[in-house]
Amino acid sequence: MRKRWDRKGCRVCGDTPFNSVGLCARCQTKRVQDYQRRHPEQTKAHARRLMKKRGAELRAAVLLAYGNVCACCGESHKEFLVIDHVDDNGAAHRRQLFGSQKGSGQATYRWLQSNGFPPGFQTLCHNCNWAKAHGGCPHQREREGYVETVFRNAYLSVSRIKRFEECAAAFRKQYVVRPENFVREFSEPAEFGTVAHGALERTYRWIQDDEYAGPFPKSVLLEAFQHAWTESGLVGVDLYSEGRELMRQYAEWAGPVDHMNVLAVEKEFNLLVGPGVCRLIEEAERPRWEDDQTHYVVNGFIDRVDRKNASTIEVVDFKSNRLLFSREELDADIQVGVYAMVAKLLYPWAKQVDLAFQMLRHGPLVQRTERTETELAILRGYLIAVGVRTENGPYPERLNKNCSTCDWRNSCLAYRTALSQKPTLVNVSREDMVALSEERERVAAIAKAAYARKEQLDAALRDAVGDRESLQLGSFVYRVLQFFNTEYRAADLIPLFEEVGVDLGPALAIDNDALDKLLDRVEADESVPKMVRDFLRARCASRVVRLPQKPRIDSRAAKKR
C-alpha cells in the first residue's frame, strides 16, 4: 500500500502545498500532460470511453424526465427512443440555440437538463418520430379511429372553454378528433347535479306557467325531483334521500315566490363576439358564423334570472358542489362573466346585474360576485383569443385536478410521467453552488409533478369519501373539510363602532382586487367630476403600504450570451 506523502511541501518543487499524492496542482498537471504525450493512443481511448459514458448518462436522465417510453406506441427499449419537439419546431429551435438546425443531440440534451426539462418535448421511438414528421403517425390514426380535418367551432360554450383551459390535449381529443364510438364515463356527481337542476327548472317553469305567487311550492318541487330522478341513471337509497332532503330544505329557505319576479328559467342564449361585436343572435343564424375565424358564437343556458327591483336583476346559477368557491375562483369565473354580458343585452333597462351562486348543499348560502364594464371588455377579448386557440392549437397536455377522472388519462404522457416520478436523494455541498442549483431545479421539477399527482389522488379520495363523515383505508382516516377565510365588511362594522365612539379607521385595509373594482366603478360614473376620476387612482397608489413577506427564491433560465 502506497504511503501518504508526509513532507510539508510538493515532492517536486517543495514550495507549494501538496495533495494526497505529494504533488501540487501545477506539478500534477505537468505529470498528466507528460503521460499523455508518451501514450497518445491510450489517452484518446480513455477520453472516448469517458465521453461515451457521460453521454449515455445524460441521455438516460433526459429520457427519464420525459417518460422513458414512446408517447405514441409505448416502445420502452432505450436504444429506440429519441426526444421530439411536440410542436414540430425542432429545426428552428436548434438554429436559435446553436446557429444551425443540425445541432448535436448531446448539445440539445445538455440544454434540456440545464433548463430543468421544460415542457414542449416528449419521448418518441424513431419510427413514430419519423412518421410524425412525414404526414402523421399511423399508430395514432389507428388508435383513435379518425382522419383529422380542419377544425372549426360550431359554437363555444363555457364548459368547452374550461376544458381547453384545464388541458388542451383533452379538449382536442374530445372535440377535435373525437372517435365516433366514444362514450363518456358515467359520473355520479355530475348526474346528481343534473337531477337537482332538472327538478328546480321544472318547478320554476310551473311557477311561471301557472302565474303562481305565494309560499314556495314544496310539493311541486318534490314531485319534480321524483320525475328527474326516475329519468336519471342514479341508484342508491342514500343518494336519493340526500337529494330529496336538499330539495325540501331549499323549499323551506327559498321563501315566498312571485311569478312576476321570475324573468327567465333555463334561458338559452347565443352570444356573438368578435372585433367590435357583442350581440345576441338567433339559433338559425349560428351556421353563418361557423367558418368565420374572427367571430365566435358562445352558447349556453342561464339557470334563472330574477327581478329584484325596478332597476336591478339577479342572475342565479344553481351549484351542487360539496365545497364552496374561494374568492379568487368567484372573481375569475368565466361563466358568470358571460352571464353578465348576456343579461345586460337581454334586459337593457336593468342598471345593475347581480351574480349569484346558490350552493344547494350549504342551505341558504348564496355566494355573490360582480363584474365591471372593464372586466367584461377584457373577457370579450379573451373569448375571441381562446376561440382562435381552440381551432389552431397547439394542444399541449397539462396536469390538473381532474386528471384522475379524465376519459383520456390512459393515453396521456404527462399523466403517466407524473405517476412514474420517483425522487432520489443527491448530496450536495454549499461549497459547490453550481451542483446545488442543479439539484434545486431537479427537485423543483419533481415537486411540481408530485404536487399535481397529490391533487389527483385528493380528488379521487374526495369522491370516495362522498357524504360520509370519514373513510378509513388501511391505517389512515380521511375526511373532507371545508375551510373559510374570515372577513368583516366595513359597511356592517362602522355603524357598530360609531355607537360606542370608536374610530374604526386604523383597523381598515383594502386589497388590490377590491380597490381596482371600486376605482373601475368610480371611473365609469359620469356623475363624478372628471378631474376626480382622472387622478383618484394615482392618489390611491401614492398611499400604498407594502408589508414584507417571507423571502422566496425565484428561478429562471439564464440568457445565452
Description:
The chain is of the alpha+beta class and 561 residues long. It has 4 domains: 47-144, no CATH class; 188-391, Lambda Exonuclease, Chain A (Alpha-Beta Complex), CATH 3.90.320; 403-466; 487-561, no CATH class. The chain contains 19 helices and 12 strands. The chain has helices at residues 25-38, 40-65, 90-98, 105-114, 126-132, 138-144, 158-166, 168-176, 188-209, 218-231, 237-254, 327-332, 334-346, 373-392, 413-420, 433-465, 490-499, 512-523, 530-541, and strands at 81-85, 121-125, 213-214, 257-258, 262-274, 277-280, 296-309, 312-319, 352-359, 366-369, 471-473, 476-478. A 6-stranded mixed sheet has the order 6-5-7-8-9-10. Strands 1-2 form a two-stranded antiparallel sheet. A two-stranded antiparallel sheet has the order 3-4. A hairpin with a 2-residue loop joins strand 5 (262-274) and strand 6. Helix 2 (40-65) crosses helix 4 (105-114) and helix 9 (188-209) packs across helix 10. The radius of gyration is 32 Å and the shape is globular. It starts with 24 loop residues before the first helix and ends in a 20-residue tail after the last helix.
Which helices and strands, and how do they pair?
Blueprint: H1 25-38, H2 40-65, E1 81-85, H3 90-98, H4 105-114, E2 121-125, H5 126-132, H6 138-144, H7 158-166, H8 168-176, H9 188-209, E3 213-214, H10 218-231, H11 237-254, E4 257-258, E5 262-274, E6 277-280, E7 296-309, E8 312-319, H12 327-332, H13 334-346, E9 352-359, E10 366-369, H14 373-392, H15 413-420, H16 433-465, E11 471-473, E12 476-478, H17 490-499, H18 512-523, H19 530-541
Parallel strand pairs: 8-9
Antiparallel strand pairs: 1-2, 3-4, 5-6, 5-7, 7-8, 9-10, 11-12
